[in-house]
Amino acid sequence: CLKNQLEYQHLGAFVPSTSNAESVLEHSWAADERHRNGSPLSTIDGQLVAIKDNICTTHQPTTCASETLQAFRSPFSATVVERLKAAGAIVAGKTNLDEFGMGSHSVNSVQGPVKSPGTISASQRSVGGSSGGSALATSTRQCFAALATDTGGSVRLPAAWTGTVGFKPSYGIVSRWGVVAYANSLDTVGVIARSVEAAKQVYDVIKGHDPRDPTTMSSLTRSRINLHLSHRPRNEHLRIGIPREYLLKELHPSIHKHWSLVLQSLRRKGHSIHLTSLPTTKAALAAYYVLAPAEASSNLAKFDGVRYGKKAPNDREKPNVLFSNSRGHNFGAEVRRRILLGSYTLSSTAMDNYFVRAQKVRRLVQDDFNQVFAMKHPLLQHRQEDPSSISTDENGEGTGVDIIITPTSLNLPPLLSSLRSHNKTNDPTNQFQEDVYTVPASLAGLPAISVPVPCNDWQQVGLQVVGQYGDDELVLDAARELE
Ligand code: GLN
Question: Is there a domain that residue 276 lies in?
């Protein structure tokens, strides 16, 4: 891994000077020793895990790829990092991202873009965003796996475009303590790895209740969900849903073709395919791009150059513009755009028309999923342990589906040069479209994973498996069927 870190340095997966070869070697010798004695701390003892640079670590700066945090070093590590270390994993370094997680191509970074391993720069493609550094570090074997955050698709899209597996667990399963917030109600820590099994190994280490994050589920709720799951009618074959609203005419033909091929092969294995409907899908993307910037505008208010963030040079003439100058100078264009958008949609004149409506759409998106899955939402039940709460037909078979399979992205990764050129297709809102398949699961807090499937006219395409809230293990099992 360390050799690969040197070889691929120029691709910008890591934020410079955050990987520490000496300490990595020291830790891996200690882990080797434990393995020799037959007492490894966990299945990932001694493995190098890269950390997205919006997750706090004490030994490296945490910059969120922003000018404003270039000098920030957190006095504590995030719970997920502590858990990895306790399991013997070694921090491989901090990975590059779109500033504060805002973007879909990992180009909105003060460090410069993350680049795919093309031989000539004209052939370099987007690695997806915002966790492009974590995805590229994993695909080029600079680490065993990487932690990343997913607010509207930032684990899954880069996984799809780098040929890796990207798992976003249900909201509330993994602690966000020590993760720099973009949009708290959507932010989820996920894992990027080269196989479903590796992603699960890391997930098993980082999940669990954290008293420091009140949005993580308590142990009691976790056992109630497990009880609820244990009442599900057992069937070795999956009922797989295909939402008709996801058959978009803009979907790239290769992705469409391989989606169909995978469904055919799953049918041959005995699983059944069902056309389903998620009618609010069309409004989900717009709702996300109202809600996420609204939360971001509130979260980023603290980077005013006094409480947090880099201070703008003093302007003696106008001392009262320090806050706006600090933000104006030290945030990139996309972050400034989101703050403006969010401040507007939360303002008293626009609130009802935008923020409140988007919240209603979010609820409809959640309702859509609840209509489609056989298992009811475990937290919306009055009595979780009541088996009759699971909708079944006269044979005891579930009437809804177990999982949904969709593409992860609309397109194959675009050339980086096409993102830079100033033309109509480069309108910033165009980049939002790439999140159309990932945002609905984020709005509903559902577990979702992107799995690479081989493709004959491109390297691979990413397909996404989405499950009911709390059904993370089934989503991982189903993902294995696609590998
Ligand atoms: N591309 C989306 C955005 O810019 C998703 C980002 C994310 O999941 N962090 O908001």
Answer: no
